[in-house]
Amino acid sequence: MPYLDDPLIIFTDLDGSLLDHHDYSWEPAQPWLDRLATAQIPLILTTSKTSAEVAALQSALQLTHLPFIAENGAMIHFPASWRPESPVPGARYADIRHTLEELRHRYDFEFRGFGDVTPKQVAIWTGLSEPDAALAMQREASEPLIWFGNDLDFSHFKKCLTREGLALTRGGRFWHVMGVDAGKGPAVQWLAAEYQRQRGKPVITLGLGDGPNDISMLEAVDHAVVIKGHHDHAMPLSRHHASQVFRTSEFGPHGWVQGLDHFITLPAREIQK
């Protein structure tokens, strides 16, 4: 198990993981956030949220000096001190919306995306305030949607998206449409490699997430924390050994804390506190 003074990088999902599923609070995780900050361990927010949403959270969490991964890996945002070219080719939001509208018109698919509704409706779907819902609608490379049709049409819908170079990933509340090569896993792998290149030595990666859209991230890291989710979706991973995968018994930030307690060994001075 890694120690707090090892060359760790932590990638964390937000909703239902670091943030409570219902009230979006991270208060139970604050002691660990403080420890990570003191130890200068990068905490990379890795989320389905937009860059506009994450920027506000980064500021509140005092993480603005770090990169973050947004829109399920379709976007990587770098701080001002970084100058790499974004490795995620992705698909532009306008192109995704155009494709979705064409498919819906052609096949009468029954779904609604963020681009179809008002901030008030997004607020109802998500539990966000309307101003925060407006931030969630400032999308650059992915579209969340709710499917209302039947399973047969859904299977056809997925095949149509594949032909258009797009893919679906399942989040806690929504399906997310994005470029076929995008995803949390590829973004995590690229960013971990960039940290290793900058530091000139190997890094140890740990990931925490609760939803199916986190699986590629959890497969890409050295140590994976599967946080108990408010859903009934399977969370299968290719690894099962306790040294690599830990499944929490708590939800949200309480589970987040359980995961770090399980994997990260604290110095004796911390344990004695």
UniProtKB/TrEMBL annotation:
Residues 171-263 form the Sucrose phosphatase-like domain. SUPFAM superfamilies: HAD-like (SSF56784). It holds the Pfam family Hydrolase_3. Keywords: Hydrolase, Magnesium, Metal-binding. The keyword Protease does not apply. InterPro entries: HAD-like_sf, HAD-SF-IIB-MPGP, HAD-SF_hydro_IIB, HAD_sf, SPP-like_dom. This is Mannosyl-3-phosphoglycerate phosphatase-related protein. The lineage of its organism: Bacteria, Pseudomonadati, Pseudomonadota, Gammaproteobacteria, Enterobacterales.
